[in-house]
Structures are given as C-alpha cells and as structure tokens.
Amino acid sequence: MPHCHTYLKKLRDLGYRITPQREMVIHIIAHSGRHMSAEEVTEEAKKRSEAINVATVYRTLDLLVENGLASKLDLGDGKTAYATGEHGPHIHLVCRQCGCVTEISDGDISVPLRDIEEKYSFDCHPYHFSIHGICRNCRERTN
Amino acid sequence: MPHCHTYLKKLRDLGYRITPQREMVIHIIAHSGRHMSAEEVTEEAKKRSEAINVATVYRTLDLLVENGLASKLDLGDGKTAYATGEHGPHIHLVCRQCGCVTEISDGDISVPLRDIEEKYSFDCHPYHFSIHGICRNCRERTN
DNA sequence: TTGCTATCTGCAAACTTTCGCAATAAGGAG
DNA sequence: CTCCTTATTGCGAAAGTTTGCAGATAGCAA
C-alpha cells in the first residue's frame, strides 16, 4: 500500500521540489482514506497550525493528478473531489443523479486496459477510473 | 443517431417542460458534433438572436447530464466540456498532462458494462466514458 | 381560450477554481 | 556552510460555476 513517503519520493524523482505545503497536502489526502474537496484539505491543513493557501492546495492536488498519484472526481455537488490510490486500484461508479460513488475493485471486472495501451500508445492510469450512470436508489425512486 | 427531437421527447417523457432555452441548448450541442464549454453554448445561443442566461445554460446542461443525454468532461483547461452522445457511444482517453482527448469507439474494446449492471444494479450510461492517463506525446516529451 | 400551479428563467450574489506576478525558499554546486 | 538558480508560494484579481429568490411561463384542466 503506497505511503506518504512513496508519493514524496515519486515527486522528488520526477524533479519536483518537496515543500512543507506539499508534504502536508499529501499526508492529509493519503491518510484520509476517502475523497476530499480542495476546501477540506485546506481546512485540515490550517488546523495543523500552518498557514497554507488555497491556490497552493489546488496546485498540489493537480500536480498529483497529472502524475497519476491521485485522481479527480466530479461528484456533482459543485466541488471537485480528490483522492490518492491509497486503497488500491478500483473503479468508481458515479451516479449522475445523486452523485453517490460506489467503489468496486478492479478485480471484479476486467477492463482490457492493456489492449488500449498497445493500440493507442496511451498510458492508462489504473487507479480511480470512473463509469457514470444511475444508481439503484435513483432508478427506483424515479420508477 | 439521436436527434434534437429525440432529446426533447425524452425530457418531456421524464416530466420536464420544454422551453425555448432548453430547445436552443439541445439544438446547439446536438448539432455541433463536438465538445463545447458552457460559455461556447451561451455565445452560440446569443447569436441566434435570443437572450439566454449563463445560469440557464448550466442548468440545462446539467439536466441533460443527469438524465444520461449528455456528458461532462474535464479537459483540464479550467473549463468543463459538454457533449451529447450524438456520434455514438465511445470512450475518451483523457490525458492528465495536456488534457487532450482521444476518442475511441466502444467497438475497439469491450468494457463489460453488462457485468457491472448485473452485479451492482448500476445503470451504466454507455456514452462518453473516460479513462485517464498519459498520452503518447506527453510521455515522449517527459522521457 | 382562459386560468391555475408548479416549474423554469434571469438576475445578482456567493462560491469554487485559476492565473499573473513579486517574494520566498528548495536543492544542487562549490 | 553559503551562494545561486529556478521552482514554488502567497496574494489579489479574474474567470468559471452554482445558488436563492422573485417574476415569468409551459402545460394541464375545464
């Protein structure tokens, strides 16, 4: 299971600088074990008696996403959620109506990512990959 | 291939009202055959010599997304793109670095959506479903 | 056609996210 | 340890998106 240090090392290896702000953001989302909005991360960071700016939080989160260390998720609540791949590769079933997210393990289903990689030279990030649709509750409520 | 009327009928069947603003938005994105930002849709609508508000455009686009008639896509350029399933179901390969989108037909790859539907009672929307990763160009530039 | 009612729109304000720029500081070289 | 270079931060402003509310109107019933 990847740890803060793993993320930090990966960033360092990629040539990025390790700053207290980045350490803090990584620590927070890696240990939360859930999806967090940029605002939540910022609040959490400020609790740790350190000043950190919202813009920096956004930049750090985007940095992690760009390098495949975290993923962005639109939960349809007007905010964007971020999460690390801390609890292993999985697929998100995102409901378009209520925005709820069901996580299923990628072992449950075999998406042939390898085929895509070969055919399109596209390097798929296995963590957090989303399928949109309507969840059972919403469907039942509508019927 | 779905047409404006199909979308309008679907909305009406779902109990929504058909307003000139909704017709306009649907007409615009269904005929564009590409991804459009909310701003582009608004501009286009205003060209058609009708007043329409940005808030209404957002609300209409979200309505379409919630009902599986269109999809939202984060292209990483600070704006959200919307598109109908006009040109058939397909998969988006979204690059996390440059934000470019490669569309591949769902015939190229068989994502076992049916399995997910059965196992999780989740009604997958086949149109526009995204896989994130790194495109060939960005990978080559990095190496 | 007319009237009714809940839905929808426009507006303005609030909120979320991005950007430019000057100041700061990480990390390597000496 | 000190200096240097350049990436990174914080700030304020701008851009993009959502929300609450009052007024307008689609669609139904008569």
> Under the CATH scheme, which architecture of the largest domain in chain A would be assigned?
Orthogonal Bundle
The largest chain-to-chain contact, stated as pair and per-chain residue counts, equals:
A-B, 39 and 38 residues
Report low-confidence residues of chain A grouped into runs of 5 or more: none
This entry's quaternary arrangement is homodimer
Shape of chain A: globular
The H-level CATH homologous superfamily of the largest domain in chain A, spelled out, is Winged helix-like DNA-binding domain superfamily/Winged helix DNA-binding domain
How far apart are the termini of chain A? 42 Å
Please explain how this structure is put together:
2 copies of one chain form a homodimer. In chain A, strands 1-3-2 form a 3-stranded antiparallel β-sheet. The first copy, chain A, has a 3-stranded mixed β-sheet with strand order 5-4-7. The first copy, chain A, is of the alpha+beta class. Chain A folds into 2 domains: 85 residues, Winged helix-like DNA-binding domain superfamily/Winged helix DNA-binding domain (Arc Repressor Mutant, subunit A), CATH 1.10.10.10; 56 residues, Dna Ligase, domain 1 (2-Layer Sandwich), CATH 3.30.1490. Strand 7 of chain A pairs antiparallel with strand 6 of chain B. The first copy, chain A, binds a DNA duplex (30 and 30 nucleotides) through helix 4.
List keywords for this structure.
homodimer; 143 residues; alpha+beta; Arc Repressor Mutant, subunit A; Dna Ligase, domain 1; 2 domains; 3-stranded antiparallel sheet; 3-stranded mixed sheet; 6 helices; DNA-binding
